[in-house]
Write a structure and sequence with these properties.
- The chain has about 325 residues and is of the alpha+beta class.
- The chain has 14 helices and seven strands.
- Helix content is about 40%, strand content about 15%.
- It has a five-stranded mixed sheet. It has a two-stranded antiparallel ribbon with strand order 6-7.
- The longest helix has 16 residues.
- It starts with a strand and ends in a 15-residue tail after the last helix.
- Bound molecules: FE2/S2 (inorganic) cluster (FES).
- The site of FE2/S2 (inorganic) cluster (FES) has 12 residues, from loops.
Amino acid sequence: MAVNLYTFRIQRNTPREDGTLETRWQEFRVEAEPTSTVLTALEEIKGHQDGSLTFRQSCRSAICGSCAMKINGRTRLACKTHVADAVKNGIVEIAPQANQPVLKDLAVDIRPFFQRVHKIKPYLQEGDETDTNVGKSAYEQVNHVTQCIMCGCCYSDCTMAEVSPDFLGPAALAKAFRFVSDPREGAKSERLKDLSDPSGMWSCARCAMCVEMCPKDVAPMEAIVKLRTRGVDRDYHDGAGQRHALAFHTDIQKTGHLNEFTLLMRTVGFWGTLAEMGSALHLIKKGKAPSPFPHKAAGHDELKRMYEIIENNPLDVETKADERPPE
Ligand code: FES
């Protein structure tokens, strides 16, 4: 197979004595076949050009999750990414994962990520809700989330983790779904209640980056949506996220329009609204304030009928039955 010359532009991070990092970019030229992986190229650089380059790797088979890093702006497994697929204008740019503290070069401190996973209690608990009848459909509910290898790709590219440091993140929430959906779990309700707090399932902005970047097709956002449905079904309506979703639901059902004038108050309450008064005044000044008078949308009768149909035939958000036997 043809061997090509590629430029690897790598972010080097060197810890200083005062705890800060010195960051710079360094270029390396590497000969590689198009089907070589980015990890192979990094090993070539470390082995023959600069032994001080630091990165994590172990299995080389997309199983251990340790080689997750930013490759041309998106977090991927270096051992699963072909150089030919990663190269852009002749350059492969590599940086450490985002949303995690960098230790050196491409190695990040993975403790914050795993602290979040530990927070959701990643084990079965005894309790009143234990059901020992574990059928095939129960297995199918959790099958896709059990593929998670905890590589952190989803967390690194999560837009909410970037702005909300307490957010549990996609991997921990997908793991939580695995336990909420397991018939043997004895504290499902308690879990859903805990996950309804502001750092939990309602903080997801549904940007779908986690679905796009997961190297194992776990689709964490889908698990988060299912968690939310289960939380609402059990009447956990206390948080801003739940209230926001229910306000949308009520308005659209009633008039077909969102009543943005009262939406903030119904979502974050009086004090939360007061805190946002600066933005509200800005909108009023710019003539962009929503109308305080709700009015019905054209075709609202049709919309009402759709709601009736859905309410009489609840949507099945669970994983569809699969004819294939468990692998
Ligand atoms: S080295 Fe194990 S997942 Fe890449």
